[in-house]
Input
Amino acid sequence: MIRVALDALGGDYAPGVVIEGAVNAVKNNPNIQVVLCGPEAEVKEGLAKLGYAGDAIQVVDAPAPVAMDESPTDVLRKKPNSGLVTCVALQKKGMVDASVSAGNSGAMMVACLMLLGRSCKRFERPPIGCALPSADGHFVLVDSGANVDERASTLVDFAIAGSAFAECFLGLEKPKVGLLNMGEEEHKGPAVLREAYQLLKEAPVNFIGNIEGRDLIQGKADVIACSGFTGNVVLKMVEGFYELHKKMFGTIDTPAGHRFDKMWDYRATGGALLLGLNGTGIIAHGISDAAAIEQAVVVAAKYAETGVAKKIGERLNAIKADEPKAEA
Output
């Protein structure tokens, strides 16, 4: 049985859709139990309205709300009784196998980093690794929004983490790694990207150079490294493209149309994994509906059950061991 802690107040439509997603997750997946972390009375009232009276959902009282614009470090220090911090703390104590929040992504990243810790000591910051559809299957976009103002060395770490994720989760051997930039030429882009390019040429990954925006979904690279700011813009542009397509064409009742829906509907992804942690921390989209929350819980359980975070940690340590040492 896999136990997943879920932030009941996380997301734009919480707690209603979060509670509904949790109920659907346990009903459709007998191997999953959910621990809902939020205001106990409100959460139990929501469960009652849905007619749920089973024992696969436990409620832990965590009444403090976390706003999307609150300082991540302030949340960790001042709101230990929030659903977001509580769901990570439960994993630290070994009471659950994974933690999920659709709330403040920066606060979730900081909570996971400080409470769960890094799986590789030479790794700077945990980025969000998100598998997005491409012409040939999927590519990993990293970072998808957990960090901002990264140094060139941090972008190299993102590339290494994304490569480890592609190996461990997508089953790719020597995944091709690209750096998202405004042109393919080596000297294009701002200084931090030009420096990152030079570092990546010497990094222990299969670096193939810069990737332009138009090449993102063409399958040119298996892993695309970028700043969290840029990655989040790309992620939401992809989601907007799918929503526009649905608005214009609806569901196209052909094999190709159904395949398109399955590939591009961001609700099917549910949530994305924070890479490089001693545990499973999942960040779901703030606009998640009940279906997306359900899938986030399912994805979290899958990552936890298959030990993806541990495998990534082992691979990161192996890659970092081969990384060129800086000259004195």
